[in-house]
Amino acid sequence: MRIAVAATKQGLPCTRPFQNGCPAGVLPPAMNGFSGIFSTRRAPQTCSFETTKWPRRYTPRGHMLRGKPAAVLIAIGLAVAPQSVTYAQSPSNPLIDGLWLAGGSGQLAEIKQNTLQIYEMTDASCIPAGNAKMRPGAKPGEVVFEGRLIGTLRVTAGDSSDSLWLHHRGVSSVALQRAPGLPETCGHKTPDTPESNYEVFWRTFSEHYPFFARRQVDWSAVDKNLRPQINESTSPAELFGVFQQMIEPLLDAHTGIDAKTIHRSFHGRRADAETQQGARAGRIREIIQQKYVRGNLQNYCHLLGLGSKPQSLLHFGLVGDSIGYLRIDAFPPGCDGGLDKIFREAAELKGLIIDERLNVDGSNAFAFSLASRLTNHDYLAYSIATRSNAPDNGHRTPPQPVMVYASARPGFSGEVALLIGPDSVSAAGVFAMALFGRKPRITRVGDNTQGVFSDVLERTLPNGWRFSLPNGTYLAEDGRAFDVVGVPPDVRVPVFPDQDLRDGRDSALEKAIDLLGQTRN
């Protein structure tokens, strides 16, 4: 999810350029929390689906797998896409051909002879990172490119001959500005040496990572300490170890390294955030089902492709006579039909509890689709500012608003309690922020979310390893950011403490039921 309006206004014609031509009220699939325009996962050809093939980047436990290489991802653009634009008329139009810079991401698109080539750049390097060919049969007013790694891209005209809008699957629109020429660094291949790989890695974080101050890490000091360990004799395993030493202190779940050639990977996580995944999750679900839910939870949005047995990502039932309980194990791409069924059942309820404490990330677009079902009015969710390449690592692009639009599809406008905790990561944290402007105000119960929100900028090293980092800051209407600390609860209750598991109870769920005015079973 990026800077454009982050949920369709359900029931209206699909006229906004970032909706990619899906039918009215339908969000495109495969919209995930990863930043940028380009990704290895090719978007399905349909606009919604109820059985989800989950992106291979996720395991059922939600840990990001960095083993699948990505071509390139363009980060948040500089401005929100306009409600209507003048589209590019043909692939030979000079508005299209040329070099185009995506501000704040260090990425450059070259469009030439019906081909789009992407470069990942730092001040000292330039690495080609994927290409796409023009596809025939585009709609009037757009040019479509498609690549094996990049997927489908749609290009439309910007506000002048020196600007374009580039639209990828999902709800994103990125502003491209014409560049005068390829940087000098693109005139030669970035060498694949330990020193060069280190330089690209360190400099990418130096130019784009926005949270050094928040995480109290002196990146220049890290460089001074670790760069002397790198020389032409440094082995791949030693180089990986140095990279891990560099980013592990950031304690950031949106940072990671995937070194396929040596079968090693690493991704960060907040040190004090105990995960509830694995063996504990089964016991937690058992307690909720047996002690609190009337009847059985109904399962929606089935996960395929990670094993022989499908898994359900959404679960809905009743706790008490008139309070609904919706557990989200992951924010799935699509599944609007599942939400329709859930909210038809919830229409007459007095209250709704949404539980994202066992969440494994997923689709920001689905988070906004769900938020749009919980309101009768449009409102500002938050704004996004991107870390731009500047010596001042606090420099950001101007904040761009992200809206929630009330949906015309079945929804719930009554009292809502949101259960949160350390496993409320990425898309789950985004969902918590997306409800800030909701009326009546939701009540958050539990513990702080993981504290990672930003889209993830993925990059390639000269040796082919992939690494990732956030490069945007999500800002509440009052200007606050919740990176590192996480979105706090309104009512703090320990999330699945050992005593609760021994006693067979869920204190946070009980508190949510009480707050909504219902005596638990």
Walk me through the topology.
Elements: E1 51-53, E2 98-102, E3 107-112, E4 115-122, E5 125-135, E6 143-147, E7 151-157, E8 163-168, E9 173-179, H1 194-208, H2 219-226, H3 236-247, E10 256-259, E11 264-267, H4 279-291, E12 294-304, E13 311-318, E14 323-328, H5 336-346, E15 351-355, H6 364-372, E16 379-386, E17 400-404, E18 415-420, H7 427-434, E19 443-446, E20 456-460, E21 466-470, E22 472-475, E23 491-492, H8 498-503, H9 507-515
Parallel strand pairs: 1-12, 14-15, 15-18, 18-19, 19-23
Antiparallel strand pairs: 2-3, 2-9, 3-4, 4-5, 5-6, 6-7, 7-8, 8-9, 10-11, 10-21, 12-13, 13-14, 16-17, 16-22, 20-21
Task: Give the overall pLDDT as a whole number.
Answer: 78
CATH class term of the largest domain: Alpha Beta
Look up the CATH topology of the largest domain.
2-enoyl-CoA Hydratase, Chain A, domain 1
Assigned CATH superfamily of the largest domain = 2-enoyl-CoA Hydratase, Chain A, domain 1
Percent helix, as a range, is 10-25%
Total count of helical runs of at least 4 residues: 9
In the sheet with the most strands, the strands line up as: 1-12-13-14-15-18-19-23
